[in-house]
Design brief:
The protein has 255 residues and is an alpha+beta fold. The chain contains nine helices and four strands. Helix content is 58%, strand content 9%.
Length: 255
């Protein structure tokens, strides 16, 4: 295999490598001259990955944006989605450079959790501004407060809706918490429990309920654990209080 077409799948779980290998090979064979680099990102590289349930996320960096490539990629989607491969994010080096200040939280998590499979590694050397991270963290936390309030009201006291809302929201907090840790001048961990522990140590905010709910969500599979009404009320209160306090910390932090 030539250097222009080879893939580095080392370090990936066998089931991940078995899924993304053919996917990336097809991309390179169909549009190799347009490809700058290919990556696996997200939960497929962490302890939160569950074979057969978790999606496999990836990034395709093109030398320049090409609508024909997007059409080519769209025709691959149905076949590879059966292997839980989500539609990849498609970017260019220029887009990444111009967007780091707009989406610093997302690019921070890409930098922390990625595996370069092909080409030069752009993500590993990204420079993320703590000032930009602080701004996005504050905005995201305030948006989540509104979402928590609206979700609680919309559930109308129904256990099923409240249970679903709690489970759905918890996994989205971990990338945000990595941003909070980075904002406070520390290096964010990758593992979920390490993130929660480190954030709690830095801020004094109790994150134990996030850990409890996330663990229940991951262990229960398709048959999610049903919390009692009292447990849900307690979880909601903890989520709300922690989100509010972290929002205040983001607002008060001077960088």
């Amino acid at each position: 295999m030539s250097p222009d077409t080879e893939l580095d799948l080392s370090g990936l779980r066998p089931e991940i490598a078995g899924a993304v290998g053919p996917f990336f090979t097809e991309i390179i064979e169909g549009a190799g001259g347009q490809i700058h680099s290919l990556y696996v990102v997200g939960s497929a590289l962490t302890e939160d990955y569950h074979a057969g349930r978790s999606d496999i996320n990836s990034i395709v960096v093109l030398k320049k944006m090409d609508m024909c490539f997007l059409k080519f990629l769209s025709k691959m989607g149905k076949r590879h989605s059966k292997k839980k491969i989500s539609a990849p994010l498609v970017m260019t080096p220029g887009y990444i450079e111009d967007s780091i200040d707009v989406f610093p939280l997302e690019f921070l998590n890409f930098r922390l959790i990625h595996k370069r499979v092909h080409g030069a590694d752009l993500l590993g050397g990204l420079e993320i501004s703590r000032h930009d991270i602080r701004y996005q963290c504050e905005r995201e936390l305030k948006v989540r407060l509104i979402g928590l309030r609206q979700g609680y009201i919309s559930s109308m006291g129904g256990l099923e809706a409240l249970n679903e809302g709690i489970f759905r929201s918890v996994k989205t907090y971990i990338p945000l918490f990595r941003g909070m840790i980075y904002m406070l001048g520390a290096e964010p961990p990758v593992a979920r429990q390490d993130v929660l522990s480190k954030l709690s140590g830095l801020t004094g905010v109790d994150t134990s309920m996030f850990s409890k709910v996330h663990a229940a969500h991951m262990e229960s599979g398709r048959k999610r654990k049903k919390f009692s009404h009292e447990e849900l009320e307690t979880a909601f209160e903890h989520f709300y209080e922690a989100t509010e306090r972290l929002g205040d910390i983001a607002d008060e932090t001077k960088i």
